[in-house]
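Quick question, first post here. What does this chain look like in 3D?
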Amino acid sequence: MSAPQTPPAGARTIGILGAGRVGTAVARQALKAGYEVRIATSQPAEEIALLVEIMAPGAAAATAAEASGSDIVVLAVPLHKYLALQPALLAGRTVIDAMNYWAPTDGELEVFEAAGRTSSEIIQAHLSGSDVVKTLNHIGYRAIEEDGRDRGADTRRALALAGADDDAKALVAGFLDRLGYDAVDAGPLAAGRAFQPGTEIFNASHSAERLQTILAADREPARS
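> Answer (accepted):
Ran it through. Tokens below.
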């Protein structure tokens, strides 16, 4: 990646809920891209200040309310803790769902075991006043920093995104671009099923062209 850039006018602040490996990797990459980054956990801001300083130098330790007031908010907490997310704080915000359902670690949760909805659709139902966009869930935390490339690079990796609101998806696509990735719109949140754990897309590196091909095949009705 090249030197830090000035972020686009559409999004200048990134709030990250969660200070684990994914959250701090996204924070570091966003800082390189010139964004102002705020990180919050369930702990008071002053209690995570040292952790944030070590793991994401340049980011600010924040309260959940401060992080949730950002232009884009990234959910990077264990999925089984999703009910602790405060819908009122995130109302009116563009929210990236970077979480995945892992039964071995989360335990079998009936709401996610049911086949009717994707995990991000469940998150959207909980955060009914937010515009949830599913992405950043299908790339490893190390790769978030290692795989970013300048726009137009032959080896640039693509990331899928899904969501109901076109404006929110456009905002997130711009963010992914600044992080160093081509954004490929998979469609509504239900389309996020194509890049959940266990799929061809999940945790694998694809070009935009290849990713579009996989998503198109996933949308085709099964032939008898």
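The first strand starts at residue 13 and ends at 17.
Residues 1-8 have pLDDT under 50 and may be disordered.
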